[in-house]
Structures are given as structure tokens and as C-alpha cells.
Design a protein that fits this description.
Chain lengths: 223, 223
DNA sequence: CTAGCATTCAAACGTTCGTTTGACTCCCCC
DNA sequence: GGGGGAGTCAAACGAACGTTTGAATGCTAG
């Protein structure tokens, strides 16, 4: 029987994943030791290798747990927007993309906040296998959104669109990862740091304007 | 006499800093061992502790070497723009800010490219002492640019400006760090990846449009 | 009740980590 | 031309790393 009926099914796994999420975010992968991790999770040192096989496999599990549903939500949002042959606007598309990520930011209790910061930090990590995994988990959603934007902005050159998506992706990633940097700019801590709704409005306005930036004729192959 | 006349003054230091730049970028701080680092630099294992005192002090030296001149260049650019009481436009200010960073990107030979990627990765690193150092090194330039933008956009609310600067900073950082992510979006590698001039135009257009995004009345304290 | 399986546990494995040591080399200056 | 400081070197330090082991535990099915 593959199913365990009543008991705390895989509670140890969950506690390991939660602790890993937070500690990887705080100290990186190499900077997080199995001893610290298992201590934080309140499980035995050997539990990670028993349940996941190795530290590397644990890292992959951490990302799959959150990224699979998140990108599925993104695709579902786009499906909804494109129902009945409707062609969604750039702003609608942008909002559909950033919402699932921002939603995780609100989830301070179940550790979603930890994951978004971990994710933002991972985008800039050149570790080969990790990049490959991230790319693989993102590819389907990314293709769908690229196609949607191409349909919404038929007059924009393809390579320009690719770069603007890159910028948007970066802004979004950075926003998830490092909300604290506002302090550096502001010189003090802003009061509305965790007002997700307001942040979504600000970010959508910024990204929509950037995506729709005028196409200067100077943007050509000629340097 | 404090000066050493002719010989390869502090060549060992330089080789350590160059190797550290590349390896920290590739594997992070905790992921880079002193043995690998000194081997790559072609120096003795004890050299780092002799010349810098510790691994942590080496990290700080790596950032100071590049960041001090870079932010000095940013301030100098702004000085030039504001000469004779001229009030620079948002686009001029943005260009002045991003140019020094992008210029380093071109410098593949002397390792500047390595540093920009390292820098982008560090922005999202929550390591306490490192964030403090970065903040301290950036603070003067950041205040100047904030003041310049406030003068250029007097009608924009302060907190909205802070967030838009945050977004701009993030886009810039991400662009420096992870130019390879375009491949994920494009599905193939774009040909003009290292055309810095073109990248500057694209980035400036995107950021200027984002900064000047219309101020919706819905952006208020009310959630 | 008991055989069998999944899980937990303390202890130890060999390896690698950042740092320190003390002898050695080189070159400048008196 | 010999004393001295700066720099390099091989070797070793204790600590911490990821992983493995084999016995102990608790639960379920027969």
C-alpha cells in the first residue's frame, strides 16, 4: 500500500524542506551545513540522506515543491485571460505573471516569503545544475508568456521583446529577493513594505511602462 | 621607505584579487575554498592570510577595489551633468548611473565582467556584514542620484520615487549579473549579447519609461 | 503475539575547511 | 658584505563538512 492512512504523513520531510528554505535563503547552499539544517528542523542528522538521498537532491526538492505549483498557476491565469479567444493586454499579462510570485511573499507563516527570497538569490547563481533545473521548471510558462506578449505587441521586434522580458523578469526577481534594498535608497525603512497589493500596483505600472517604451529608431544593429 | 621602486608591486595581491573575483562569482564565498583560490592565483596557500588577514577581509578588498572607482565615476558624471546649474533630465540621470556598470561589463580581459556578475549576485545575498559594506559603499552615490531625480521629477511622491529607484536598481543589477537568462526567454542565444552600446540603449529606454510611468490615482495608502 | 517494514538515532567514517607555524629565500640599505 | 625585513613555502593544526553504518524503535498486517 503506498498510502499511509492517518499519521503525520511525511512530517519529517516537510520540516526539512521548511528549514532548508529558510537556511538556504540566509546562507546559501554551500553555506548551510546539514548539522545546522537538521538541528533547525528538529530531526536527526541522517534524516536528510534517508529521505532525499543527498544534499543536492534536497535542493532540487526545495525548488520543485514551490515552483511547480507557481508556474502552473501562471499558466492557469493565462488560460483564463485567453479564454473565448480574448487577446489580453500587456498589462493583464504582466499582472498574471507577477501575481503568483507576490502571493508567496505574503505567506510569511508557511515560509513562502523565505522561498521568494531564495528564488531571487538563485536567479543570479551560476551553479550549472541549478540553472538547468530552474530553466527546465520555468520553460513551459516562459514560452506561453512570450507567445502571449508577441500577440499583444505585434509591432515590436522579436529581439527587443526578448530583452524587455529579460528586464521585466529581472525587476520581478529582484523585487522578490531584496525588498530591503529600498532602505538603502530611502535612507529609512518604508512603512508599506509588506503591503502586497500596493506593491503589485507599483510593479505593474513600472513594468507596463517599460515594456511599452517607445521604440527609438536608434535601436538597430548598428552600434 | 613605504614605496617599492620598480618591481612587480603587490603582484601577488592582484592575482589573488583577480582569482577571487572569478571564483566568488562562480561558486559564491562559502563555496570557494582557499586552496582552490590560491591554486588558481598561482600563489601559496598562506598568501591570502598574509596579505589580507583572513578570507572575510579578502572579500571586502575585492569589493572595494572595483566599487570605489565605480561610484566615484557615477558621482563625477552627475557633477558634469549638473554643471552651470543645469537640471538634468531623468534619462540623462539614468544613463549616468548605468554607464559605469555597463562599462565594466565590456572589460572581459581584466576581469571586470567577472566583477559585475559577482556584484549582481551579491545584491541578493543577505549576509549581514556584506550588505552593510555594500550599503556603505553605495550610500554617497545613492543619495546624490536620489536628490537629482527628486529635482527632475518634482511632481512625483517621494515613496513612489523610492520604489521606482528600487525597481531600476534591480533591473540594472540583474542585467549585470545574468545576461544569460535571455537565453531562457529567447530559446536560443541572441547574437548581440555583448554589444554594450546597444544594451545601454535598450536598458535606458526601458528604465526611463518605467520611471516616467503614469501615476495612477489608485496608488495610495489605501490597500 | 509476532514477523516485517519504515523510520529514527548516536556514533563514527574519511575528507576538506580556514588558519597558523617556523624555516627558508631574496633583495635593499647601511 | 652582512644584518634585516618582506615575502614565500611545505607542513601541520583543530574544527567542521557530507555521508554511512548498524542497532534501536514504533507501527501494521497476518
Amino acid at each position: 500500500m503506498p498510502l499511509r492512512a492517518v499519521k503525520p504523513q511525511h512530517e519529517t520531510r516537510t520540516r526539512i524542506l521548511d528549514a532548508a528554505e529558510e537556511l538556504f535563503m540566509l546562507h546559501g547552499f554551500e553555506g548551510t551545513s546539514m548539522r545546522l539544517l537538521t538541528a533547525k528542523a528538529g530531526v536527526n542528522l541522517a534524516a536528510v540522506n534517508y529521505h532525499f538521498g543527498s544534499k543536492d537532491a534536497l535542493i532540487e526538492a526545495v525548488f520543485r515543491r514551490r515552483l511547480d505549483p507557481m508556474n502552473a498557476a501562471r499558466i492557469a491565469e493565462l488560460d483564463k485571460l485567453e479564454a473565448d479567444g480574448h487577446v489580453p493586454s500587456p498589462e493583464e499579462i504582466i499582472r498574471a505573471f507577477i501575481t503568483p510570485g507576490l502571493r508567496l511573499t505574503e505567506d510569511t507563516k508557511a515560509g513562502g516569503r523565505n522561498f521568494t527570497r531564495l528564488l531571487g538569490r538563485t536567479y543570479t547563481e551560476p551553479n550549472k545544475v541549478l540553472r538547468q533545473l530552474i530553466g527546465q521548471l520555468y520553460a513551459p510558462a516562459m514560452q506561453r508568456y512570450k507567445a502571449a506578449l508577441e500577440r499583444a505587441l505585434p509591432q515590436m521586434p522579436r529581439d527587443e521583446l526578448v530583452w524587455r522580458m529579460h528586464f521585466m523578469f529581472g525587476t520581478h526577481a529582484y523585487t522578490l529577493a531584496a525588498t530591503d534594498t529600498v532602505q538603502l535608497i530611502a535612507g529609512c525603512k518604508p512603512e508599506d513594505r509588506h503591503d502586497t497589493r500596493l506593491l503589485e500596483e507599483r510593479l505593474t505600472a513600472f513594468l507596463t511602462a517599460g515594456l511599452n517604451a517607445p521604440l527609438k529608431t536608434s535601436i538597430r544593429k548598428a552600434a
